[in-house]
Amino acid sequence: MQTITAAVCHEFGAPLVIEEVHLRAPEAGEVQIDIAAVAICHSDISYAEGGWGGTLPAVYGHEAAGRVSALGSGVSGFAIGDPVVVTLIRACGHCTPCATGRPTGCETPQNGDHGPLSTLSGGVLHQAMACGAFAEKVVVHHSQIVKIPQGIDLAAASLLACGVITGMGAVVNAAALRAGQDVVVIGAGGVGLNAIQGARIAGARRIVAVDMSHEKLETAREFGATDGVLATGDKPWRAAKAALGRGADVVLVTVGSARAYDEAPRYLAGGGKVIMVGMPHSGASSTYEAVNFAAMGQSMIGSKVGEVVIRRDIPWMVDLYTQGRLKLDELISARWRFDQINAAIADTKSGVAGRNVIVFD
């Protein structure tokens, strides 16, 4: 049992505490990763605020990259020192969703209370989202990592673990966007920007970004949005339709706002799809008139982590990045030391930052 440093949540809504904890060695099918970089995702913040419940104390963090430092028995295809992206997508490989190509829906339970972490006194320390990457090291199932080429900046690579695959995957996998279709992206934060550049790469005709911030709309244009609409305006869907000349074929809701979901169908054309990406807190609800969906042949589709297959999709995205077609470096708002994690979280909550990344020495 080794001792590492982690940022631990002891109380919902309170600052994380950097302290020493225990991490056991990888068992069969597991790998140990020395974390080089971990990004702050809004999902981590929602969990730490108690928005979705869960066990405490806990270690959050699930958007990470690092190097393999130990291998459990039965693991092949990886070697000590390999640079990898570490994701929250843990797939057993044999349940029905895994066997039919949807590992994001793996039905094999994983209980973070009985994971590789424990307190120094031997007590339960929850490994959140099967990662617990707000720490110097993690032990995860081998299905959660993807090897990437040597030399890629691991801070940029960490974004491929969640924000990038969630946004781009929602476009190419959940929406199955065709070239020439029109897209509205509600929310121009970290995930929204990746939905925008995913739509650009997939060949969308027009891409309308909708956000409450002029600054974010300008950034959205840099990532491929053709038009921007302020969400604070009166009936913003009218401005979006005016920019498109019609309703949208695909509307991607990338913010965890029940109000955004209330309004999303108003942007649609007949036959259009709302792709549900952002996750409001538990208990929040939205209301729709079902008759409109039936009459217009419209649909609402959930998208969990972009419905990705990580060893298919992440190498593709890495290749796009090396070609200069996928922006990763530009997504990083700032790089922070591990001891600055609470300041990085506060900056993320301000709504101004795209992605703040904790970088380990």
Descriptive overview:
The protein is an alpha/beta fold. The protein has two domains: 193 residues, Medium-chain alcohol dehydrogenases, catalytic domain (Quinone Oxidoreductase, Chain A, domain 1), CATH 3.90.180.10; 139 residues, NAD(P)-binding Rossmann-like Domain (Rossmann fold, 3-Layer(aba) Sandwich), CATH 3.40.50.720. The chain is 26% helix and 25% strand. Strands 3, 5, 6, 9, 10, 17 and 18 form a seven-stranded mixed beta sheet that branches. Strands 13-12-11-14-15-16 form a six-stranded parallel beta sheet, with helices on both faces. The relative contact order is 0.15.
> What is the chain-wise order of helices and strands?
EEEHEEEHEEEEHHEHEHEHEHEHEHEHE
Instruction: State the fourth-level CATH superfamily of the largest domain.
Output: Medium-chain alcohol dehydrogenases, catalytic domain
CATH arch. level architecture of the largest domain: Alpha-Beta Complex
> How far is it from the N-terminal to the C-terminal residue, by CA?
23 Å
Mean pLDDT, rounded to whole units? 95
* Strand content range: 25-35%
| Tally of contiguous helical segments | 11
Radius of gyration: 20 Å
Estimate the helix proportion, in percent.
25-40%
| CATH-derived topology of the largest domain | Quinone Oxidoreductase, Chain A, domain 1
CATH class bucket of the largest domain? Alpha Beta
User: What gross morphology would you assign?
Assistant: globular
Overall domain count: 2
- Contiguous low-pLDDT stretches (5 residues minimum) are none
Major pleated sheet: 7 strands, mixed
Total count of strands: 18
